[in-house]
Structure formats: structure tokens, C-alpha cells
UniProtKB/TrEMBL annotation:
PANTHER family in the record: 3-HYDROXYACYL-COA DEHYROGENASE (PTHR23309)
One Pfam family per UniProt: 3HCDH_N
Residue intervals passing through the bilayer: none
Keyword set, alphabetical order: Fatty acid metabolism, Isomerase, Lipid degradation, Lipid metabolism, Lyase, Multifunctional enzyme, NAD, Oxidoreductase, Peroxisome
Protein's name in the database: 3-hydroxyacyl-CoA dehydrogenase
InterPro entries associated with the record: 3-OHacyl-CoA_DH_NAD-bd (IPR006176), 3HC_DH_C (IPR006108), 6-PGluconate_DH-like_C_sf (IPR008927), ClpP/crotonase-like_dom_sf (IPR029045), Enoyl-CoA_hyd/isom_CS (IPR018376), Enoyl-CoA_hydra/iso (IPR001753), NAD(P)-bd_dom_sf (IPR036291)
Keyword Aminoacyl-tRNA synthetase attributed: no
Entry annotated with the keyword Phosphoprotein: no
GO molecular function, one term: enoyl-CoA hydratase activity
UniProt-listed CDD domains: crotonase-like
Annotated GO biological process: fatty acid beta-oxidation
Main location group: other
């Protein structure tokens, strides 16, 4: 027996308690212990076995940290078969989240009881694999093919009530898992309940698996695991159990060896490591019980909504009653969305929009706020005035935050007498939906203020990334680079529409021009004008055709025309023919003879520009580690999750080849394509970006 499994006899019942914090993952010690516990129970003449988890949950899956390493025995599918084959009555009692291999262990027992708050699921496709311990064969047998396909391809967690309805659970009972499990096992013994091996249940009814496969593959935008999982469930319908298990194993092994599994596991651990910063060790965040928001436009209203939904009372400041009323309207509209999506009850909606939200027009109303965040017009002078006012109005120790997306936070902090209390909290629109939060740390920001930013981010359900001060911080700075690369390719012969299609083919939901149309072309226009006013390097390629679009009032979706022309409602968009006329004019003006671009070259250049700028951002310390860039691009810019983020993708694609291509492009344009020093250094040393990340999952 291992200490990961505690063995206990209670009358005729042998109890195997899994004790492997934090989530009772089914690592080798747990598997060895469970097998030994089953052997002991049978040898000692017990009549039943109860398996449950200690601490926070029933096992939440295989130990993801073991992936990529040689598997060790007992292999989980064999352990599940062993449990199921026991001559004793085997019962599992579920609390917390029985996920992946955890649910597969439960499905290999003969009966399953759970607490009301328990959740179950088979989320393996989110890790680039599929349930590999019999889940694709047993779940269809207890819940039917339709439900099994839904749970396995969606990876969603299912509450106890729904799991009961689906036949995954037999009972739900209040109480500790061990207690309700013992009571259930004893009751089953008393009534002479038979063993009930799921593997011996009849094969589930087939569905149109080819149609499902195609639909799931299309929805996954190139992610393979959900579609391959369809084939595993199909095997449950078409093959005897043992052969179905063998088929599941084949498909599982194929996916385990895929780049997509590497990318998705990297994403899983990166978004958990990104908040772990040595500078925050032992630092206590300040208490934030209420927040102030300045500016009730789209961003300010979104931030206020996010705070309200997290249970934080909000005082929102606008300059006039009219603007205040408009801000309230935006926030109520956002909350109505949460109500419609079932995120909040009607009663909660009333309270949030009522007593928890105060709208004011005087800075004095912010004197009690623990943290104030401004989302006013992106102009440095306006921001400095706001911060001077905050300095005068807010209580000592209040955190003063800016939502600026690129302005110099050090200059903003200098407008106050308390620069140590100033921080950047860069939300992404819509702020109450997008998970990414860049926490921008100025030169004099106090460590506990940084910790306060991360604590607030966690409370708001955000994935927070630490960023240093520069134009665009992490995400927008890298976006500016690959967006500029796209513009250079348009001038040289590609079209925005070809680039969008190639980028969608890589797995992005939208291409860069579709994104610009959605965000509003006026944003990019303002940025180009700002950078020109600040003075462009004479070697920088300044692209102006898009200015003509904006001068004509075409700002994208919000005006019905931009790079694309938008029909009424949600009807599709068509390329705007005026765009290529403007491009042709600029090419002529600049003496450019357009050439052909293949989709492959478009993507290669696009990704090289992204990775090269990302390497600069890490090299300059704007991002602490490459994984910080990956998390930023995954959660704020639609980077396909199964590729792990730009740095993980570059490691898998090969840094040496990327650097060689960049050096080739630099022969055309040695300003834009000067290789990032960090990239050159890693290639010279034969290292990867991942070598600079803190060990994943530690
Ligand atoms: N293996 C190893 N570590 C894990 C883990 C796992 N399965 N799940 C969580 N952790 C770590 C996590 O890295 C973090 O560590 C800590 O536990 C708390 O997690 C054959 C092959 C269970 C819902 O996909 O969804 O079974 O940062 O911060 O927000 O078919 O963790 O503290 O050092 O996320 O409360 C299938 C993945 C595996 C579940 C809890 N199972 N985990 O969320 O805490 S594949 C999963 C989760 C499999 C079989 C296949 C969540 C959670 P640290 P956390 P949380």
C-alpha cells in the first residue's frame, strides 16, 4: 500500500481513500495503492469496496505532469478493468470534481453516489487527448451515445443532478463522501444488489458518426482531439468492449504523441504559472472591498460590470448627469446579458444594478474606495489630470489604477504624490467577458500594489499577466508587429482577404483585418497618427491606404463598411472592392510592383513577426517569461490554444528555422526584420523559449 491510499475496514466494507493533494490526481502511487487495496480487500474477504477522495475532491484525473514521460504501471485503463472485474461490490462516492481518469475510475466501479455539489466530466479533449481509461467505452453504455458525445467533445463539467438524470450517478446524498459512500454500500449489500460491471452492459445505440466527426472537426478550427474522440465513441457502438478499449488506446496514443497535446498541456500549466512571480512571494495584497471606476464608456462600464459580478460594490464617476445615465444603461445592459446567460438570478440583477452600483459626478464620492480605476479618453494629459484629482480625493493607501492600453504609466504616476500606489490594469473589451488582464507595473509601483492587482484579477476571474511599461505593453506591442507585417505584405502583393483566410486556416477565429473591422478602424488610425506625430524612423515602412478608408468614414462593422462590407444583421461580409483600389494607388505611388504570395509564405512571415517581437518583449523584461506572452496571446488575441501560444509554437516549429527566415527577410528590410537578440542567443546556444519558463506546473 502507498501513503497515497488509506485502507480501512468498516464491517464488510473495505474503504480506499485517495490522499494525493491538491486534486488527488491518479499518479503512479495512487494507481499502485488502488490496485493493492483491491487485492487486500479481496484477500481479506470483504464483501464490498468503497473508493473516495480526501480533501477537496474525488480524483480529478490522471496526473498531467506525467504526460510526455514513459507511462508506468499499472496503466490506468488496466486498473479500471481490474476494479470493474472485482468479485466484490465496488462503490465510488464522489465529491468535488471527478474529471477525466477520476470519472473513469468511478465508471469502472459498480455503483456511484455523489454529493449535491459534485461535478463530473471527461475534459481530456481540452488537453489534446481523449478519455484513455475506458471513458469512451463506458460513458456511452451508462448515458447513451448522444450524451457521451456531448460530454466528451465539449469537455464540459456536469452537475450532480444532470449526471443523475444521465445515469452516470445512481444517487445524490448530503454529507461527507465517505459517510454517504459507506451508507450506500451497506444498503446495496443489505438488499443483495448484484455487481454491475459497466463493460458488460449492452453497446449503446449508434448515431451518424461521420456527420458528428465533420461537425466537431469544423467547430474545433483545426483541433483534432474532439473529432478523434468521436471515433472512439463510435468503437463503443460497433465493437465488443475489449476491442473498443483497444481502439480507444490506439487513438489515445496517437493524440498523446501530437504537437496539439503538447500545446494544450503547455497552455494548461502556463495559465497557472503566470500568476506565480518570485517578486510576489510573501507579499500581502491590500484589502479591496469596494472599487471606484472613472468613465462609464464601453470599457468603464465593462470593468464596473466585472467588479459587480464579482461581488464588489462600485462607485462609477461620470462628468455629467447625462453621461452618468448612459453609463448606468450600459452596465444594466451588460448585467442583462449575464441574466440571460443564467450567470445571475433576477434578484441578484436587481441588487447589482441597485444598491451595489452608485453613479456619481464628483470625485469626493471616491474618497472611500480601496481601489480606483480610470477608463477615460486615451490622452496622456487627460490621464494626468485625472490622477492628480485622484491623488487629492482618494484615501491614503487606495490603489490608483489606469486602464490605459499603451500610455506611459511612469508619466501618469508622476502626476501624483504617491507613485507607489499607481498601477496599470489593462482590461480587454468587453472587460466583463475577456479573461485577459495585463497588470502593468511602473518603476515605482509598490510590490503590495502589484499583489493587489493580481488578487483583484483572481477575484474577477481573470487570467492576469504582469507587464512592464512600453508602448502596447505585451499584447498590443506584439499585435502592432504582426499587423505591420501584414500591411507590408499587402503593399507587396497580397490582399487583406487572402491574409485573413490564411490566418484563419492556422486556427485563429478571425484574421487581422476582420479583427480591425470588429474593433473599429478608427483605433488603428489614431495609433498611426500618434506614432507619426511622435516621429517615425525614416527606415520604417509607413502604410497609408487604410487612412483613406477612415477619411471616408469607413470604420468597419460599426459603420457597415471597412475592409469588408457588412449586410444587415448577421448576414455575411463581402470584401470591400474599394480596398484594393486604395492599395493599388499606394503601390503605384511608392513604385511597388506587386508579386504573388502563397498562404504558406503569408503565415510564415506573419508568425515570424509575432515571434520576433515577442522575443524582444521577453528579452527586455516587459514580459517576465515566454509563457507570459503565450498566456497573453491565448487569452487576449485568439491565438489557437492547441498550438500553446506563439512561443510554444516557435519551440515546436524550430527556432533555428525561424531565425534563418527572419535573417532572409532582413535582407529586404533590415529595420523591421532585425532579429531579436534573445532569439539569436537561444539559437546560438541550442536552447528553447521554454528553457526560460519556470518549470511548468510547479
Ligand atoms: N494533474 C496534475 N496536476 C493537476 C491536475 C491534474 N490532472 N489538475 C489540477 N492540477 C494542479 C494544478 O496544476 C494546480 O497546481 C492545482 O492542481 C490546483 O489546480 C486517462 C489521461 C480540477 C477543476 O483535465 O480542470 O485523466 O498551480 O489551480 O481552479 O483519461 O485543476 O497549485 O501547483 O486548476 O480549483 C483530466 C484538470 C486529466 C482536470 C481544479 N483531468 N484540472 O481547478 O485549481 S487527463 C483534467 C482542472 C486524464 C485519462 C486522462 C482543475 C480543477 P498548482 P487549479 P481549480
Amino acid at each position: 500500500m502507498t501513503e497515497a491510499i488509506r485502507y480501512e475496514r468498516v464491517g464488510d466494507i473495505a474503504v480506499l481513500a485517495v490522499d494525493n493533494p491538491p486534486v488527488n490526481a491518479l499518479g503512479r502511487d495512487v494507481r499502485v495503492g488502488l490496485a493493492a487495496g483491491m487485492d487486500r480487500a479481496e484477500a481479506e474477504g470483504a464483501r464490498a469496496v468503497l473508493i473516495h477522495g480526501t480533501g477537496r475532491t474525488f480524483p480529478a484525473g490522471a496526473d498531467i505532469r506525467e504526460f510526455g514521460k514513459p507511462p508506468t504501471e499499472p496503466f490506468l485503463p488496466d486498473l479500471c478493468n481490474r476494479i470493474e472485474a472485482s468479485p466484490l461490490l465496488v462503490v465510488s462516492a464522489i465529491h468535488g470534481t471527478a474529471l477525466g481518469g477520476g470519472l473513469e475510475v468511478a465508471l469502472s466501479t459498480h455503483y456511484r453516489i455523489a454529493t449535491p455539489s459534485a461535478k463530473v466530466g471527461l475534459p481530456e479533449v481540452n488537453l489534446g487527448i481523449l478519455p484513455g481509461a475506458g471513458g469512451t467505452q463506458r460513458l456511452p453504455r451508462v448515458a447513451g451515445s448522444e450524451a457521451a458525445l456531448d460530454l466528451i467533445t465539449s469537455a464540459r463539467h456536469v452537475g450532480a443532478e444532470e449526471a443523475l438524470k444521465l445515469g452516470i450517478l445512481d444517487r445524490i446524498a448530503e454529507g461527507e463522501a465517505r459517510e454517504i459512500g459507506l451508507a450506500h454500500a451497506q444498503a446495496l449489500l443489505d438488499e443483495g444488489a448484484p455487481r454491475r460491471p459497466v463493460g458488460e452492459m449492452p453497446a449503446p445505440e449508434p448515431v451518424d458518426f461521420d456527420a458528428r466527426y465533420d461537425a466537431v472537426l469544423k467547430k474545433g478550427r483545426g483541433q483534432l482531439s474532439p473529432a478523434v474522440a468521436v471515433r472512439a465513441v463510435q468503437a463503443a457502438c460497433e465493437l465488443p468492449f475489449e476491442q473498443g478499449m483497444a481502439r480507444e488506446r490506439e487513438l489515445f496514443t496517437e493524440l498523446m504523441q501530437s504537437d496539439q497535446r503538447q500545446g494544450l498541456i503547455h497552455a494548461f500549466f502556463a495559465e497557472r504559472a503566470v500568476g506565480k512571480l518570485p517578486e510576489l512571494d510573501g507579499v500581502t495584497p491590500r484589502e479591496v472591498a469596494s472599487i471606484g471606476v472613472i468613465g462609464g464608456g464601453t470599457m468603464g462600464a465593462g470593468i464596473a460590470t466585472a467588479a459587480l459580478l464579482a461581488g464588489l460594490p462600485v462607485t462609477l464617476l461620470e462628468m455629467t448627469d447625462k453621461a452618468a445615465a448612459a453609463a448606468r444603461g450600459r452596465i444594466e445592459h451588460n448585467l442583462e446579458g449575464a441574466l440571460k446567460r443564467g450567470k445571475i438570478s433576477k434578484a441578484r440583477f436587481e441588487r447589482l444594478a441597485g444598491q451595489d452600483l452608485r453613479i456619481a459626478t464628483s470625485y469626493a464620492a471616491l474618497s472611500g474606495s480601496d481601489l480606483v480605476i480610470e477608463a477615460v479618453f486615451e490622452d496622456i494629459e487627460v490621464k494626468k489630470q485625472v490622477f492628480a484629482q485622484l491623488d487629492a480625493s482618494c484615501k491614503p493607501g487606495a490603489v490608483l489604477a489606469s486602464n490605459t492600453s499603451y500610455l506611459d504609466l511612469n508619466e501618469i504616476a508622476a502626476a501624483t504624490s504617491r507613485p507607489q500606489d499607481v498601477i496599470g490594469l489593462h482590461f480587454f473589451s468587453p472587460a466583463h467577458v475577456m479573461k485577459l488582464l495585463e497588470i502593468v507595473v511602473a518603476d515605482r509601483t509598490a510590490p503590495e500594489v502589484v499583489a493587489t492587482g493580481f488578487a483583484l484579477g483572481k477575484r474577477l476571474g481573470k487570467v492576469s499577466v504582469r507587464a512592464g511599461v512600453c508602448d502596447g505593453f505585451i499584447g498590443n506591442r506584439i499585435l502592432a508587429a504582426y499587423r505591420a507585417c501584414a500591411e507590408h505584405m499587402v503593399l507587396d502583393g497580397a490582399t487583406p482577404f487572402q491574409i485573413d483566410a490564411a490566418v484563419r486556416g492556422f486556427g485563429f477565429a478571425m484574421g487581422p483585418y476582420e479583427v480591425s473591422d470588429l474593433a473599429g478602424l478608427d483605433i488603428g488610425w489614431a495609433s498611426r497618427k500618434r506614432k507619426r506625430a511622435a516621429g517615425l524612423d525614416p527606415k520604417a515602412r509607413d502604410v497609408t491606404y487604410a487612412d483613406r478608408l477612415c477619411e471616408a468614414g469607413h470604420f468597419g462593422r460599426k459603420t457597415g463598411k471597412g475592409y469588408y462590407i457588412y449586410g444587415p444583421g448577421k448576414s455575411g461580409a463581402e470584401p470591400n472592392p474599394e480596398v484594393m483600389e486604395l492599395v493599388a494607388a499606394e503601390r503605384a505611388e511608392k513604385g511597388i510592383t506587386p508579386r504573388e504570395f502563397t498562404d504558406q509564405e503569408i503565415l510564415r512571415r506573419y508568425m515570424a513577426a509575432m515571434v520576433n517581437e515577442a522575443a524582444r518583449v521577453v528579452g527586455e523584461g516587459i514580459a517576465r517569461r515566454p509563457l507570459d506572452v503565450d498566456v497573453t496571446l491565448l487569452h487576449g488575441y485568439g491565438f489557437p490554444r492547441y498550438r500553446g501560444g506563439p512561443m510554444k509554437w516557435a519551440d515546436m516549429d524550430g527556432l533555428d528555422g525561424l531565425l534563418e527566415d527572419i535573417r532572409g527577410y532582413a535582407r529586404e528590410d533590415d529595420f523591421f526584420w532585425s532579429p531579436a537578440p534573445l532569439l539569436e542567443e537561444l539559437v546560438a546556444e541550442g536552447r528553447k523559449f521554454d528553457d526560460l519558463n519556470t518549470p511548468a506546473g510547479d
